[in-house]
Design brief:
alpha/beta, Rossmann fold, 7 helices, about 10% strand
Length: about 170
């Protein structure tokens, strides 16, 4: 049995290494992220993309280096032609605003590579039930995998499944 693959979006990496926030909601997300990362992530095969690297290298140089160091040994999913095609579909079919183009890149990367989970704290454009419902329809029509999109909190369960070999 192999471990399920999880695409870790940049918001999760940022919350993991960030100093504790004064905003109680953000602080709660940070603590949940740390608990998931430290206690549950080993049950998964984590991966990222160049898009994640581009986002986490922004900002304060020391904080950016900390984020980059955290994922430095994780595999990068290659950029494949299907990603751009899916992004174009997602912007239209998922009703994403133009400002959510990078969010569509994350979803398309996870979908094109058949990743089991996409974990994020972006609940506006990615981990959103309405987006996922539309995504499932689009991906099924395109013959593309539909990743489970969720927050780290939803993967805290200690019964993380293995992927059966068929």
């Amino acid at each position: 049995m192999e471990k399920p693959r999880v695409y870790v979006e940049s918001s999760v990496v940022s919350y993991y290494v960030a100093r504790p926030s004064r905003d109680v909601i953000v602080l709660g997300h940070q603590e949940i992220t740390r608990e998931w990362w430290d206690n549950c992530l080993a049950r998964f095969y984590p991966c990222i993309s160049e898009f994640v690297l581009e986002e986490i290298e922004r900002g304060d140089p020391r904080a950016a280096q900390s984020r980059l160091n955290t994922v430095s040994d994780w595999p990068l999913l290659p950029i494949v032609p299907a990603i751009e095609r899916l992004v174009a579909l997602y912007v239209t079919e998922l009703h994403l605003p133009e400002t959510a183009y990078r969010d569509a890149l994350h979803i398309a990367t996870a979908s094109a590579h058949g990743v089991d989970y996409l974990v994020t704290w972006n609940c506006r454009h990615i981990a959103n039930a309405h987006v996922w419902r539309l995504l499932a329809k689009v991906n099924i029509l395109q013959g593309v995998s539909v990743p489970i999109i969720c927050t780290p909190e939803e993967l805290l369960d200690d019964r993380a499944p293995s992927i059966p070999d068929f």
